[in-house]
Amino acid sequence: MLSNLLRNLFVTLILSFITHAQSFLLEGTIYDSSNKQPLSYATVQLKANTTGTTTNNQGRFTLDLPQGSHTLIVSYIGFRSQEVRIQIPYSHRLEVSLDPLSIELPEVVINSKDEDPAYRIIRKAIRNKGNNIKSVNSFEYDEYRKGIFKSAGKIASIDESFLKTFKTGDKEKEFTIASFRTENIKKNDKNINMFRGMKIDFYKDTIRIIGNKIHLPLARDAFDYYDYKLLDVKSTGENLIYFIGVIPRSEIRPLLTGMVLIEDSSFALVGLDLKNNKGVTIPFITDLSFRFTERKVKLDGLWFPQYLESYISMGLSFQGLLFVEKLELETFRSFSNQTTKFSEPDSLFSPQKYAFAKFGYRDTAAAGASSEGDTSKTTVKKNVFKPVMLTRAETDSLRPIPLNDKETSAYKELDSTKRPEKMIKAKGVLATYADMQGEHKDSGDSFWGKAAETFISYINFKNTRVEGIGLGLRYDHANDTAYIFGISGLYPFGLKKPEGSGYFGLRLGDKHAPLVTLGLFSQVERWNNITLFPELMNSLSITFGLEDIFNYYKAEGYNINIKKEWKGSHNSPDRSLMFGFTSERQSSVSDIFNHRIFTSRFAKRINPEIKEGLDNRLSLNYISGTDPLKFQVYSESGFSLLTDLSLKELGGDFGYLKAYSICQLRFNTIFDELMFPPYMLVRLEGGIVHGTYGLQHILTPENSLAFLSTFGAFKGLNPYEYVGDKLAAVHVEHNWRSVIFQSLGLRSLAEMNIGIITGASAFKMWNDSGVIKTAGDIPVYWEVYGGFTGFLTVLRLEAAYTSNKIFVLRTGFNISL
Q: Is the pLDDT of residue 569 over 90?
């Protein structure tokens, strides 16, 4: 058996050598005979079969042919096809000049009342596109693909691949048979997938490009988005080709502009040159541009893809903090051996045997194939095949589209030290910081980086107008394991009495099972637990001299909760239900301290005394979607219901029912095609408290944190300006994104992600409790506002006018994405 294996290996190597020795790389150029200009994307095809190639943008081509006599058919739309007889080996570069075809068409006079002939042609193309799709519904082809990545105008990497592809309807299965790359691309670099290029079926109605939904020129409703103009008519010698201009009707919607080529008999789409219009914008992406060039070839009466070029370029400008110079990605795809003799790839096609036939036993063995006995019976494990890594000589002999001078130089210059990401030219403050972090990468993280990480993770910081500054430690161990726990301690330098809390949780089963937690606490709490602002944000606001928007009381006790979560599509909680019991001793905290850095002018607001006692209560909380009671930088839809039932029968001093519910909806409004379309936010709130309770249980509308605001907070209210036992509120905000700036031609603002917002809020409050005395009925309060979003990504600036006839300016956090 060993002797048979060695013999077959020897024979295979000899046959492989002979096969390569008898092939010849034909090089040539195709010209226009009338002006000697090279013809881009001309077809060079073997007459005997579908083997062929396409000229590049310099009119040059290469074709690997076996020794012998061959007839080439050279063709180009608008030129007379030419048959060229050659003998391989061929001793010099082949040059072919094609003669322009003159066609006589009846003169068409178009006046203001007549419709351009292009509309009739496009209607027929749309009507017939179903038949044209079905005619080449299933086929297979060989493909050569080249991806070029450029940074600041210089080539940063090149990747070349040879593939075998099977297409059935919308489904495509491709096998990468062999590859060749610049040395600066690592062997197993996953980022190389970006070189696959954009696979687009231009017969579809819409496609998604970088998140934008684009209506295509042959969409069934295309006339709602495009105008058309007949630019030219050329002949292939067999058919007429209509060159039709595609003109977008909107500069805001993401559409395409350029030209499509329609054949006159079947009205098939046989080519196109399209690029993006001004409506395709992405925040912080500048000078965005992409284009597509496609040509098809007619074989056996059907139009098959022959050449496709996609190009995208962009810059990055992060509002003065980060600049990235122009990035470009070009993908060239050349198709050959197209045939409708389709075979199911899973059963009849073997990439190992295909690679074996082209490159010999060495490469299939390296790719994971194993052989025993006859090499024609090569057996491999399923999904083990890896693309053959070609040598430079092998690639040069197989490449159907020649490299230009810059690409040839790039292969020589880009060694393993010049990684593509290192060639990206970034400038600005963030770029400098990234470079500094990179310098610290080998020597460990920087001191300040570690200090910041430790502070965020473990330091407990608090500042209120009744405690002053407090510092302490905290630790949380919370994940999907069987148990969780956490502990925190704090020493307020104003009260000079330590406080702290801790919890322990046990899961009743696997990670999806309910979680039971026990908590202990002795700390100062806010009156209203319904607030959009994290405690840390309020503490920092006070530290820097701004007003404290909360009243406080001392809480000591314990709680027991059981919580069940239902995970959503991204493994985040989609719904949760919690039932619990809390026993809490509540007492007044009346001392006032001033721990501010810059000012003390807000220090004199009194913290009222509360009704003290033991509050034993049952709680039921339900959340669906994103919790609207939490601070949201990116606002989303969600629903929350909080209920507390305090009973004297449980041994407490209170007897009340408190319920609060919030429903928040987010939905797109206009220009839904955009990656980030304008959207509306609607927030409805309602609350009630009834029974025997104290000041700490009353309802009050959410007001802004000093000058800092967010959606759902009233911008013109002072802390506890309105209080009561029943509350109903509504908030409506529309984010217009940058469409207004786009419509005014202010594209630079759109690229900076600056958007316009408008909104209104109102509430009605009732106070029948007797806990707080109010004179007469509480009127409806309202405010309207407008402003801008997108400053430094997360900041917003808005001006509001209220029913109290005051005018306020607020900033806020809001990611407008």
A: no
611/625 Cα distance (integer angstroms): 36
Of 295 and 170, more confident: 295
Identity of the amino acid at 620: L
Under DSSP, the state recorded for 423 is G
CA 661 distance to own-chain centroid: 33
What pLDDT, on a 0 to 100 scale, did the predictor assign at position 121?
94
- Please enumerate in sequence order all residues whose Cβ is within 8 A of that of 135, keeping only pairs 6 or more positions apart, or say none: 266, 302
Residue spans of beta strands (DSSP E) within 568-654: 573-588, 613-625, 638-646
Supply the DSSP string of 619-640, one letter for each residue.
EEEEEEES-TTS--SS---EEE
CA distance 215 to 206: 4
Beta bridge partner(s), residue 664: 638, 683
The DSSP bridge partners found for residue 100 are 79
Q: What is the amino acid identity at position 231?
A: L
The residue-averaged pLDDT of 368-377 equals: 38
Return the amino acid letter for 51. Answer: T
Number of neighbouring beta carbons within 10 Å of residue 340: 14
Q: Which two tokens stand for residue 632?
A: 């949201």
- pLDDT tens-digit readout, 186-215: 766 655 544 455 678 899 999 988 888 999
How many other C-beta atoms can be found within 10 angstroms of the C-beta atom of residue 109?
A: 5
Instruction: Provide the whole-model pTM.
Output: 0.77
How long, in residues, is the chain?
A: 817
In this structure, which amino acid lies at residue 474?
R
Other Cβ atoms closer than 10 A to 230? 19
Contacts of 684 (CB under 8 A, 6+ apart): 662, 663, 664, 729, 730
Which run of H or E residues covers position 760?
Answer: strand 755-766
The answer to whether 586 touches 553, Cβ cutoff 8 Å, is yes
Cβ–Cβ < 8 Å for 559, 582 = yes
Which residues make Cβ contacts (< 8 Å) with residue 789, sequence separation at least 6? 735, 754, 755, 756, 757, 795, 796, 814, 816
Q: Is residue 198 classed as helix, strand or coil in its secondary structure?
A: coil
**Are the beta carbons of 183 and 133 closer than 8 angstroms?**
no
- Band the pLDDT of 411: cuts 50, 70, 90: very high
Q: What is the DSSP string of 91-112?
A: -S-EEEEEPBPP---------T
**pLDDT for residue 112:** 47
Which tokens hold the place of 334?
Answer: 């050349």
Residue pair 12/19 in contact by the 8 Å Cβ criterion: no
- Residue 552 and residue 366: Cα distance in Å, rounded? 72
End-to-end alpha-carbon separation of the chain, Å? 66
Tokens of 231: 């630019």
Task: List, in sequence order, every residue forming a beta bridge with 763; answer none if it has no partner.
Answer: 729, 781
Alpha carbon 252 to chain centroid, angstroms? 20
Alpha-carbon gap, residue 63 to 75, rounded angstroms: 15
> How far is 582 from 93, CA to CA, in rounded Å?
89
- Compute CA 1 distance to the chain's CA centroid, rounded to the nearest angstrom: 56
Q: Which residue would you say has higher pLDDT here, 195 or 241?
A: 241
In our burial notation (b when 16+ CB lie closer than 10 A, e otherwise), range 686-709 reads bbbbebbbbbbbbbbbbbbbbebb
Q: Which residues pair with 208 in a beta bridge?
A: 213
A 10 A CB-CB count for 399 gives: 21
Strand pairing class (708-709; 807-813): parallel
The answer to whether residues 368 and 375 touch, using CB atoms and an 8 Å cutoff, is no
User: Could you please report the per-residue DSSP string of 113-167?
Assistant: TSPPHHHHHHHHHHHHHHHHHHHTSEEEEEEEEEEEEEETTEEEEEEEEEEEEEE
Contacts of 55 (CB under 8 A, 6+ apart): 29, 30, 38, 39, 40, 41, 42, 44, 61, 401
Residue type, 330: E
